[in-house]
Amino acid sequence: MDIQLATRPMQPDDEERLHRLWPRLSPDTVYRRFHSPIRGLPDETVHHLVDVDHDRREAVVATVGDEVVGVARYDRSPADPSVAEVAVLVEDAWQGVGLGRQLVTTLADLARRRGVRTVTATVQADNDRMVWLIRRLFPGSTMTVDSAVYEIRSPLTGPSAGTPEPPATAGATALLSRWG
Ligand SMILES: CC(C)(COP(=O)(O)OP(=O)(O)OC[C@H]1O[C@@H](n2cnc3c(N)ncnc32)[C@H](O)[C@@H]1OP(=O)(O)O)[C@@H](O)C(=O)NCCC(=O)NCCS
C-alpha cells in the first residue's frame, strides 16, 4: 500500500496534533525519546515543543492526512550556536518504514544551511534503530557510552551556511510503501 507522506516545519496549530499523537505512543517510544517514563503531556510542554523560531530552535513534522506521525527537532546551544542537539520520535505504527531517516535528513539539511556545524544526541545504547540511523546519516559520529546511554557527537558537513533554504512553510511529499 502506498501512503502519501508530507514533511514540513512545525507550525503553531500543531499543538492540537501533538496532543492527539501522544496517546498513540507506546511507553517504550516515550521513554526512548524523553529518557523518562512521562505519563501525561502537560500543556506547557506541548507549547514549548511547538514554539520554534526556525533558527535557534527548529522542528520538522511528518504528516499523514492531517495527523502528525513523527517529529524531529534541534535546539542550538546558547553557548555555541554552531552546536545543536537533535531528537526524533516516530509514532509506533509508523516506525521502520523510513520516516525517522527522512525527518532527520530534512532537519540536518536545515541546520547545516543555518550554520550548525556539530550535532549531538543522547541515545540509549540498546536503541539499535536510532544508533543505525545515526551511523548511516552521520558517519563521522563519535559515541561515548555512559550508564547505558550514548552521548553522540558528529560534524555536520555539506553545503555551507547561507545556502538558500525553502520558506518556513514549505513542505515535501513522498510516497511510502507500508505493509499491514
Ligand atoms: C528511532 C526512530 C526515530 C527511528 O525512526 P524510524 O522511522 O522507526 O526509522 P527508519 O524506518 O527511518 O529506519 C532507520 C534505520 O534503522 C534501520 N532499522 C530498522 N529497524 C531496525 C532494527 N530493528 N534494528 C536496527 N536497525 C533497524 C533501518 O533499516 C534504517 O536504516 P536504513 O536507512 O539503512 O534503511 C523511531 O524508531 C522512534 O521514534 N523510536 C522511539 C523514540 C527514539 O528512540 N528516539 C531516538 C532518541 S532521540
Write structural notes for this entry.
By secondary structure, this protein is of the alpha+beta class. The protein is 27% helix and 33% strand. It has one domain: Gcn5-related N-acetyltransferase (GNAT) (Aminopeptidase), CATH 3.40.630. The chain contains 5 helices and 8 strands; from the N terminus they run βαααβββαβαβββ. Strands 6-7-5-4-3-2-1-8 form an 8-stranded mixed β-sheet, with helices on both faces. Helix 1 packs across helix 3. It starts with a strand and ends with a strand.
| Low-confidence region ranges | none
Query: Quick one: overall form?
Result: globular
Under the CATH scheme, the architecture is: 3-Layer(aba) Sandwich
How widely separated are the two ends?
8 Å
Based on secondary structure, the structural category is alpha+beta
Helix proportion range = 25-40%
What is the CATH topology assignment?
A: Aminopeptidase
The number of domains is 1
What is the arithmetic mean of pLDDT?
90
Largest sheet: 8 strands, mixed
Q: How are the strands ordered across the major sheet?
A: 6-7-5-4-3-2-1-8
Question: Concise description?
Answer:
The protein is built from five helices and eight strands. With 180 residues, the chain is α+β, with helices and mostly antiparallel strands.
Main attributes of the structure:
single chain, Aminopeptidase, eight-stranded mixed sheet, 5 helices, 8 strands, 27% helix
